TrEMBL record:
Regions annotated as coiled coil: none
Alphabetic keyword roster: ATP-binding, Cytoplasm, Magnesium, Metal-binding, Nucleotide-binding, tRNA processing
Family statement: Belongs to the TsaE family.
Stated name of the protein: tRNA threonylcarbamoyladenosine biosynthesis protein TsaE
A GO cellular component annotation in the UniProt record: cytoplasm
Subcellular location: Cytoplasm
Superkingdom to which the source organism belongs: Bacteria
InterPro entries the UniProt entry points to: P-loop_NTPase, T6A_TsaE
SUPFAM superfamilies (UniProt xref): P-loop containing nucleoside triphosphate hydrolases
Species this protein is from: Sphingobium chungbukense
Amino acid sequence: MAESEIILAGEAAMLAFGQKLAGLVRIGDVIALEGGLGAGKTTLARGILEGLGLEEEAPSPSFAIVQPYDIPEVRLPVAHVDLYRLDGAAEAEELALDDYLTDSLLIVEWPDRLGEGAWPDALRFHIDIEPDGARRLTARVPGAWTERWSQI
């Protein structure tokens, strides 16, 4: 798994990066977003959703846990998931998240709630806040993304 770092100067840059990613995603992909509270996970997810055609602002799925989007509001089905409120992997089993992979893109915030082994082929971003407010994205790029990642 290759690793890459990207520095994004602000919210607009994070949204633009998400929109660029949206042009590369496929059904069955998992994009895992890690980082502390306020790091920008939901902002990046919103950029992806905007890039897929969502016209309204995507709500954070913090309370719903799973926020699905379907055609025609997006060009391919998406499940935006926030696992922050889960106490562990057992609670996540009830959500049947892997079922979404047959016909959707899965964007998961707080994937660490399921342990390190969850979705080994996911494109993972760890987001850190720099002292100047910029965001440092450390991407872990699995083999399934190697060719697509070169287009970033």
